[in-house]
Amino acid sequence: MSKVALIQVDVSDTETPEARVPRVLDLVDQQIGKCELVVLPELWNIGAFNSGALETYAQPRDGELVTALQARAKSGNFWLHGGSFVERLDDGGMANTAVLINPAGEIVKFYRKIHLYGFDHGEAILLNRGTEIVTQEQTPIGHTGLAICYDLRFPELFRGMNDQGVETILITSGWPTPRINHWRVLNQARAIENQAWVIACNEVGPNGDIMLGGHSMVVSPRGEIIAEAGTSEEVLYAEIDLTEVAAFRNEHPFQKDRFIR
Fold first, then answer.
1. Strand ranges in 51-134 using DSSP code E only, listed in sequence order
2. N or C, where is the chain less crowded by C-beta within 10 Å?
């Protein structure tokens, strides 16, 4: 059993990124001794719908924000999914990039968001799309795949993770209130169809002209929501039992009957 902590951050526009970052880093520090993995939401320093701030707060991989997250993981001796940040690419472009850090403070994986939301607005036209499925084999929650928010609507991505052997899927998100029912159903669907744990961390509060919906959750491989947050900032805790993955896959081995590939 491994314990995880999902920090459901309030990204209300009344708080500046300069004030939010140290506050959230303090919340990360408060998880010392409480869990093996801490998870943050998507673009939590500026808020997922603050498109006007993407350029201003873009940083390289070795920038101030990621470096601070590495220091917190090392001092806390836990794994840290740092949510995502606006990565400044070598060619001057930008990406919505998730980062996974081990207890030694080492970056073990970066994932650039493949499915960019906004149609012809926001990140869809301002950011560069990722192209690679990213998983990490050895973590406290087993072989783990990384995804960001809008990715959740595209099951092909998660089937690709499944083909690589993932047992747990980490989703960092800024999912809005008007479609929060989709959030719940899609998280459960991704767990059920891949017979994997889903750990999904969302934001709350008004950001741009959007209200973020919260309801961060942990879903078992059987599709059961074992822990769910509300609509305010909070830290959600859950225990992950990896034996449930193998047990359900052995009990109901439907994946071997896949035909269309």
1. 79-88, 94-101, 107-112
2. C
Residue 187 φ/ψ, nearest 5 degrees: -60, -40
SS3 96: strand
In a domain, 259, yes or no: no
Picking from 23, 202, 172, the residue whose alpha carbon sits closest to that of residue 98 is 172
Against a cut of 0.85, is the pTM above it?
A: yes
| Helices and strands: H and E segment counts in the chain | 7, 14
Residue 79 is classified by DSSP as E
CATH number at residue 228: 3.60.110.10
* CB count in 10 Å sphere of residue 52: 11
Q: Catalytic residue positions?
A: 42, 113, 149
Residue 244 located in a structural domain? yes
Structural domain containing residue 108: 2-253
How many domains does the chain contain in total? 1
